[in-house]
Amino acid sequence: MLENIDNTIESNQSLLEFNRHFNRSWYYCNPHLNPHYELQVKSFAGLYKANLDCLANIFSSEDLEVILSGKFDSIKALNFSDKLAFNLYGHELYGFIDKADFDSADKLIQTWEMNQSEGSKERFGDLPLNEIGVVVVRPEVYHIWNLVESMLNAQGLDIILSKDTSVDLQKYSIMYKHGLLHPDSKAHFPTRAIGYINKPLRLIVVKNRKQRFQSVSQFLNTNLKGGGGTYRPNTLRGDIVLKELLLIRMNQEKELRMIFDPLLIYHKIADGEIENISIFRNTTYPMLSYISGVHIPEDFELKRDLSLLCDPIDIEKIKSLL
After folding, report:
1. Domain ranges (residues) in the chain
2. Which of 63, 49, 61 is nearest to 259 (CA)?
3. CATH architecture observed for domain 2-320
4. Which of 58, 103, 111, 261 is the most buried (most CB within 10 A)?
5. Phi and psi at residue 206, to the nearest 5°
6. Each residue of 121-168: pLDDT tens digit?
7. Are 59 and 263 a contacting pair, CB within 8 Å?
8. DSSP annotation of 54
9. Tens digit of pLDDT for each residue in 225-234?
10. Residue 317, Cβ neighbours under 10 Å: how many?
11. Is the dihedral of CA 89, 94, 96, 102 positive or negative?
């Protein structure tokens, strides 16, 4: 009991410190006042290099020079994105998506999911899924995973597992199948994928404190998740993630583009050069609306994500702490 109270106090102090530094940084236009500035710079250096190396392995030196210059039209951007998709997805998945054969793509991903989740039924056993929730801190804000934990703890949730992880193409496709196979996502999904696949993630599993919520996952998605690109106080995406992204944009514009939009697909969608109806709706900061920062599975996705992100030892640890 005392441990929970102490953690909550520490969490609230951490959030207050972050908000205080954000307000000063924003007012003085000085991102160096951000308490996570050094971690941010280090994290972004790694993400920048990883994306640059990936693009260098796919594109010719001439094309790479054009990409780095940022001076190309929407047709060139779509061609670049198509080539990136072919190399990221592999021949089979790319072929199905390119032909809009979403049924075949869905069956392929279902096969991957069956292989990935083999034996998970025995591992999970009688694990009470309604008592736990999952937050995955994505690569773009990996450096503030401790702040995400602070907000979760301050909202009455106890952290029972926190570890670094990553996902390959198959796991990524399983987790984000609904987006990958959406007809409107063909142009921009390769941009999302390059920023996520084989990049550092932080897996955080939380439990219900004092049985406060009937479903922890539902509470997370309804009350704490928020949305990208528009300020919503006391939410993950709409508060601490958005604020961190605003500070990043203030200081690291070049790195920001290479990490989040190397082929300028989102820029050209936002400018109306590439047609897309599924993003940038009613957001204050359109270019930040697709950078969600955290992934929070719904109730029906929870077992799937746990089977992809946890090993048997993790599952036993979760069980022992409930």
Report:
1. 2-320
2. 49
3. 2-Layer Sandwich (3.30)
4. 261
5. -120, 155
6. 677 778 889 999 999 999 999 999 999 999 999 998 999 999 999 999
7. no
8. H
9. 998 888 999 9
10. 15
11. positive
